[in-house]
Amino acid sequence: MVKRRSIRLSLVTLAALLALTASGCQEKPAYKKVRLASAGPELVKAPLPLKVPLRVAIAAVISPKETLNSYQALLDYLGERLGRPVELVQRQTYAEINDLVRAGGVDLAFVCTYAYVEGQKDFGMELLVVPQVRGETMYYSYIIVSRDSEIASIEGLRGRTFAFTDPLSNSGRLSPIYLLAQLGETPDSFFKKYVFTYSHDNSIKAVAEKLVDGAAVDSLVYEYTFAKSPQYSAKTRIIHKSSPYGMPPVVVHPALNKELKTQLRNLFLTMDQDPRGRVILDDLIIDRFVLANDADYDSIRKMVAAVRK
Question: Can you give the pTM of this predicted structure?
């Protein structure tokens, strides 16, 4: 009897286990189906990275609008030859342009000679090329007055009003200050009043419209305005021409990528041999770009030392 009950219990247990096993086999886990040969949605290609622009600064030798009008074709030419966009960066003062070069905010800059001397001393600003104009790599500081003014020399401007261009301009400030120093004078002791116009064309206009009695201007800009837009320069005349100075250079930061530096230098040096480049240079009244010589700026260094004593 006991044996029979034991067998019955074992059979019941076995049946229960078989039922559970069968139930587990029927409830298969749900697996995510993957189609290995699926065409699937088309992959979206990532956009190609944009080319980094070449950043170019041009000192405010002439006013911003005139700078853009004069240099746009040259900037376009550089961009096309390098295969990258070019971005023009403008600032009001020469010191701000130097700061941009120092900080790596621009790759290339057109600067004044005095600004170059200061930048070279400050952080090693490096010469790239200089323009040659009418066979020369030198330029001058002109002191101008109104065409109908009775003033005939620098001495005639004593007690008068005068316009400088920029504190870091050689032709527009350093050179005339050095000239005054030879007379034992300073701007404060010599002029009744002086102002800064922050561009040479503004200084020419100020004299032409008799807002000031005289001004010191860059010979290159003065002659360029006579050739391109003489409405103001024609109302003025030159009463003093300085000794020659090294041409305002094209510069870079010394740490600029060497390959880019070489590309830029070669582009400038061969520009006059390219038909389109030749047209652009002619419009800027530039013969060609040539290699620069740092010794050409020694006369400016001497003037800086003299006026800072």
Answer: 0.80
